[in-house]
Protein 1
Amino acid sequence: MTLTERSMLDLTGRVALVTGGASGIGRASAHALAAQGARVIVADINETGGVETAETIGNAAGFVHLDVTDEAAWCRALDYVISTEGGLDILANVAGIGTGGDFEDLALSDWNRMMAVNATGPYLGCKHAIRAMSGSGRPGAIINVGSIAADRAAPDLVGYCASKGALRMLSKSVALHCAHKGYPIRCNAVHPTYVDSEMLDPIADLYGSREAMVQAMSRLVPLGRLAKPADIAAAVVFLASDGAAMITGTELFVDGGHTAGVPPSHFA
Ligand SMILES: NC(=O)c1ccc[n+]([C@@H]2O[C@H](COP(=O)([O-])OP(=O)(O)OC[C@H]3O[C@@H](n4cnc5c(N)ncnc54)[C@H](O)[C@@H]3O)[C@@H](O)[C@H]2O)c1
């Protein structure tokens, strides 16, 4: 990496809030943003994991308890960030949940919960982050972590796909809202393929073991492996940085080629 590239990713002096920071992609994103010089507020309902992330990062990080589905909690969390850090520059909406199974058995409560965490949570985050970012006078960046499920439907993940589809258009619409209002705030989405995180643990039994699951899922990814949380965090850092200054309303698929096309069928 050249000096120029390094300076474009430099986040010194920026303040970031990362939801879902107690685990997986959120934890990796918190570490990666801090490694580029940002101060990071880790936000999660999992206090033990969130505090652990912040403590591992050290002085550059803090923790705030946040249920992303709760608007009053968002207001409290962002008031805290404004009062302690002087403003907010980066919001990474990473928190998410997923349940699957036969669509005809999908309980309304599971549907509502997925929509609440995966779509309503980022909506609340975007809405209130704009307020927190407007005051700083610095450019702001919002990164919403979606999924290839925002682009590729799956018969056994109907609620999850619907919630990530909503998040996809939320991101584009918020980007245009900010541009229309003249706010220096960009909003983009990152769509990962399967990521080797705790989120996959509940489905390991379907394959017999976690190792068998990883092997089977890796075969579906053209690059031949699951993504690591750090792979996704690298995209979050890029979209947060000045290197992405002209990028808004778009999406970055970090999917090892998963959504690029179909597998070879005739001549392989
Ligand atoms: N793991 C994958 O294969 C995969 C693939 C594509 C997209 N994603 C997306 O990436 C994001 C992160 O997933 P991950 O793999 O790191 O999962 P993970 O389960 O490791 O982490 C999710 C985090 O979100 C937190 N969370 C859940 N509900 C919350 C709420 N109401 N308020 C605040 N925090 C809450 C959890 O406590 C946890 O720390 C999710 O949005 C997920 O949909 C994951």
Protein 2
Amino acid sequence: MPSKPYLLNKRPQNGGEHEVHSLYECEHLPNIEFRIPLGSFQNCIEAVSAAKQKFPGHVIDGCKFCSPQCHTR
Ligand SMILES: [Zn+2]
């Protein structure tokens, strides 16, 4: 399976969480100035894991539109 580029929304949701999005699969991406590139991954599970390591102070969640299997909040 090819890997896909993911990004983190710099701006938190109302609940304080930062959402991970799949760049080419999401129709609800944050504005470009709020996108933090995370690199390419096989799936959102890997992308969320990487985001948590990179930003340990953030609450990280998957976008419910492009990464529903990682959306927990
Ligand atoms: Zn998304």
